[in-house]
Every structure is written in structure tokens, then in C-alpha cells.
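pasting for ref. prot 1 ->
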Amino acid sequence: MVIRDTPHVPQITIGLIGPEPAVASMKEVARRFPTFAPLSRIAEHEREAVQAATELAAQAEVLLIAGDRLHRAVKEEVEAGIPVLHVPLTDVALYRSLMMAWQAGKLVGGLSIDSLTSTMVKRALTELGLKDVEVVLYDGPSHASEAELLRFHTAQAGRCSAALTGDGAVAEALEVAGIASWHLAPSPQDISVALERALLSTESRRSKESQMVIGMINIDDFNGLVMRSVNEHEVQRLKLDIHRLLLGYVATLDGYLTALGGDEYLFITTRGIFERETGGYKMIPLAREASKSYGLSLSIGVGFGASANEAGTHARAALRKAKESGGNACFIVREDRTLIGPLEMTDPVQAVLAPTEAGVIKRAEDAGMTSAYLSRLLGSKAKFGKVDYTVHELASLLDITVRSAHRLLLLWMDHELVTIAGMEKVPKGRPRQIYRIAFLQDV
């Protein structure tokens, strides 16, 4: 039965789909959005979610689904014709579950965790002073079945004293089996952000939802892969595997893929879909799959623009920055030339950088900071949170001589891009100065 919940005159009808506790939470948070007129439907399994989405798509302007598994099933099987969003899990849910596990004395024996990235888990444990807690992370797809997650946690039961799972049904099954478990449920904050995204997808962002996005993908060290192949048959098979992998990813973007020749591909999609599939420009799932399946590293450049020519030009510029940062990176150049990235690829990153203003980029370029140097510094900031360097560390990062690094630092200090942060003591010799790339603190 479809339940309508609104005391107001509706403006935007939104369909809420998911397990009963999640739907109850979404309905509660949706009360803060008077623009929304919610239609809710309970769905515990994929088949129920697909049926609910099919029914609600004819009545709602946007669908919001709780659970990666349910969301993927709807995306794959329902031609909704409207935005289909999901409520992502963040580390806020992890903090709450960690507190419950700590109160129950279950942190000593270690934890098995699914549905979260290693970046989220490491950050939360570090901030809570729990770095010594042993954690076993589920390394499979985010849309894993209930049976797969149950097998994973059950297999870790002898090693870990508790399980944290993003699937409520798995948490219940583990409890029945006598294994301590807690459900990683989306927080009200996570739901609020998802509802805001849903609102933007139907109102002020409607024009940008359909804006063209062009992406360029380059296979890092493709020639090296070819040279290491035993014969031409193996080379051709690798090319087919790569093409099939990229086709599968672009299909999730409802996009179009074409090979530009050799090791480069181009895809076209729309901005709204790309934003949703990357979690708001945070991560590229394709990179992880390419690494796990074929040992490939990708450089990706994505361009936004008011025209196809502008988007393509920005995509090429973004790809150049990805290659200059050392590969295995994705950058986005928006229509106003602001830079986003690097997005999370296969290696954990501490945080995705906020958009770098065009004015900051120009200021850096005016001070002699080339695009290659800027890309590498941005990549180091995102992956390691690093803004302080000795001259030797900077020379190594930028692949230049120490003498050239000294010259650049003096030039950047004259333009107030760099300050002296302190001194580093060394066992032998004079202390070394530590330089802070000051403008990186603002991006």
C-alpha cells in the first residue's frame, strides 16, 4: 500500500523506498522539507524495491532509495524516467555503532565491517583514538547480496568479536546466529543531504542535470602492459577486456563510450547522473574495478561546459592534470574553470579537495607554478593531507633537482604562496627549513 504523508499543499512528490526503519527515518527528516510530498513504500528485498519503484515512478518526480543493493536493482531494472537517488552511508553511522560496540565491550576482539570504505573506517578509528582495534573490511562490491555479507561476517566470527553491517537483515541474521552485530544505518544528517540533493535535482538544478559532461580515460602505462604480454592474442584479449569494463561503467552513467585509439577512450553523459554515480564528485568506482580485475591504473579527466566544445576542452585539461599528478587520478574542470579533485580511486585518500577557484589557479600560475606542479601538490594534499615540505621532499614530489626546488620556493614565497612553517632537526648537519604551501590550506 502507498502511504501519502503531507499536511501541506504539495509541490514536489518524492518516492521513498527501503526497509521499514529506513523509510520511517526518511519520512521523519522529510518533514523539514515543506516542498516535498512524500509517497513511501516498504521494500526489504530487491524484487519489492523494483515493484515499488515501478509503481511510484508514475506518480513521483524523484525517487530516494535506502540501501545500495535496492538502489542498484532499481537502476538496473526500472526505466524510471526520473532521478533515482539513494541515501549513502557515511562515517557518521560508524561513530554511533562504534560507541555501541565499545559500551558492550566488543572492540577488544576486533570488528568485521561492510558497506564502508577503508578511508572512512581509518579516519573514524584515528579520531576516536582506536587505531589499535583490528578491523576486517568486506572487499567486495557495494551491492553485495544478503547471503554474501552473511557469509563474510560468519567467516570472521572466530577472529572478530562483533560485526558492523549496512544491511539490517544481515544484522538480524547474525544476532540469531549468536554473533554480536550492529546495523550501520544512515544518520538523519545523511538523509537530509540526500533529500537536499533530491530537491536540487528537480528544481534549481534541473537545467544542470541535463548538462553535457565529457570524460576522457587514459590507461596508465598501457605500452608497458603490451610489452609484458606473451603474444598478440593476449594483447587483443586485454584490449577487449578493457573495452568491456569501460562499457559496463559507462552503461551505469547512461552514457556513450567511444575509443579514441590506443590507450584512450571518451565518454559522454549528463551532469546529474555523473554527480549521483560519483557520490557528489567523491569517488570513481571504475578505478577500483580496473585495478582488482586487471591490475590497471587509470587517469581520468572530466569536463563540464555550456557547449560540447567547452566540455571537451575542459576534459582534456583535467586529463592532463591527472597524468601530471602521477596517474591513477581523476580531476574535474567545471564550466567556470574551477578544479575538483583528485577523486578517490583505488588508493585511500583522506579527503577529496573542494573546488579550487580559478583565481587561485591563476595566482599559482602567475607565480611560476606550472599545471604539472599544481596537480602533484593537489594530489599529495588529497591523498596524504600534506602541505608542509622540506626542499628535498618537494624536489622528489615534483621530480626536479634540489637547486630548482630552492629557486621555485623563493619565487613562490615572493608571491605569498609559501611560508616557512618551522625547522626540522636532523641527526647530523644543520636543521632543515620546513616550507608550508600556504594556499593549499584554503582548498
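and prot 2 ->
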Amino acid sequence: MIKDISGLHHVTSMAGDAAENNTFFTDTLGLRRVKKTVNFDSPETYHLYYGDEVGTPGSVMTYFPFANMSKGRRGTGEVATTEFAVPKGALAFWQDRLGNRGVTGLNKTSFLGENRLQFDGPDGDGFALVEADTKGRTPWTGTDVPEDAGILGFHGARFALRDAAATGELLGFMGYQRDEADGNVIRYRMENGNGADTIDLEELPSAHTAGQGAGSVHHIAFAVDDRATQLEVRKALMDTGYQVTPVIDRDYFWAIYFRTPGGILFEVATNEPGFDRDEDTKHLGEALKLPDRYEPHRAQIEALLPKLSS
């Protein structure tokens, strides 16, 4: 069993309009844009990162906004809901705020004793705010969202699967412990993790397969401390039979990827070097940062990218 994963690192999704995506996360949700860069494989497309003040692993939602991309089709084999943690008692604030801003899909529920507010993102993304213990985490306070209601980081994620057994076995191998179940949803929890600790598996045997598009999660990443630990995790996964990519330098972390039995793309990402490797913390996410190989083409790339509000 792998013992070095501490919870989620980031979640990466796809969007349609970059400006709309940026406004939703920085204004409506009150997160900080901690990095403005490009898709390393498609540099005419942004890669936008939103999180807490410094982009702490376990707080970062990232997006590839492809202009005119068609909407994704919800179904099995995907991360159906990305869950953010908020302080206890904060959901009334968020229900008013999101309702006043025209956010759709608002639905206040509970699961395993936790109060939740489900809502849709601009492209139909599935989100939930979950009241949780702060676990030492603090929200970004650079917006009009008060600190006692601000998003602390991720709470976890919910997968939609036709059969949850094989993915549950994988999560157990990755260090998650099977927790409680409610109906067709089984919770797995990372004990003593980074706060982004839970994965819920929702079993939907009759549902159709999801189709990726705007509003779909592209991959979900799990956190390890450093590159040496990542190599140990990679070996353990490969020894178990998973096809894992070589280590890829993503400038702000190193990454490996593999496909799960349920069809979801997993990443294991390092907590190092972090988002301040090329920007002062006070100015994270302000300038367009490019991988070295694209710097000679900066003028052409900037001309293709839409303008974003600060």
C-alpha cells in the first residue's frame, strides 16, 4: 500500500470562455488566480490556476478554457462533483451570494452529517460547498468574501462510476480508508491528510458514459511531498500493473498520470517547487508565464489569448 499521498493536489477541468471562467472563480467564488500560463501542449490556450493565497496543494482548481468548445455530457467514468470546504455556518452566505449572481443548480443537502450546497459552474460543472473543520487552512481574503465564509480549499470529490469496486480497491492501495456509505455512495477518506481528504464513489450501473467537453474534469491530481516520493509511488503503481507516464515537468510541480479502472485520469503531483518559483507571492497570477520553450513565441501567443480582468 502507498503511504505517501496526503490528499488532493489540484483538479483540472475544461471551460469554454476564458474571461467568464476567470470572473467566476476570482469574483463569484473569491479565489485567487495564482498562475496565468498556457496549456503546455496547446499554447494558444490558457492554463489558469485558482486557489488560496499561495496556491497550497489541496486548494487549486485549474482550467483549460477552449473557445467555442461544446459542453460536456454528464455520465459515468468522470469526476462528477468537485467539492470545496468552507467554514461551518457559511452556507447561508453562499446561498444568498450565488443566488444573487444567477448561479444555477443551487441545492442545499447533507451527506454523512455534512451540510452541502450544490451548484453549477459556468459550463455546467458540478460543484459543492461543504461545511467542514478548517484544519488549519485559511481562505484568500483579497476579495469581498469574508474570511469566516471563504473557501478553504478542497473538501474532496465525487466520482460517478458504473461499478465502484475496482476504483475503491485502487483508492485503498493509494492510502485511502473506506468510510461510511449512504445509499449508492461510498466514502473513502485520507486520515491525517492535507484537508482535501475525501473521495466519494457514486455507483450508477445504468447511466451512460460521460463525454468530455466544457464543464468536464480533465484529471484529478493527488499530492506527494517531493520527486523522490513520487518515484516511489510510480514504481508501486507500475508494480501493481498500472501504465504510468514518465515524470513530466509542469514548471510548478512534477506530474505522473495513469488511467483508473473506472476511466478517470489520475495524476500524482509534487508539492514542490510551488507557484512562487517565478513570481513574488504578492503578484501571483498577474503576468503571463510561459514555459521556456515558448518564450521565443511570446508575442504570437499573447496575440492569440483573450484578455482577462485582473
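DSSP finds five helices and 16 strands in the chain.
Helices lie at 18-28, 91-100, 165-173, 227-239, 298-304.
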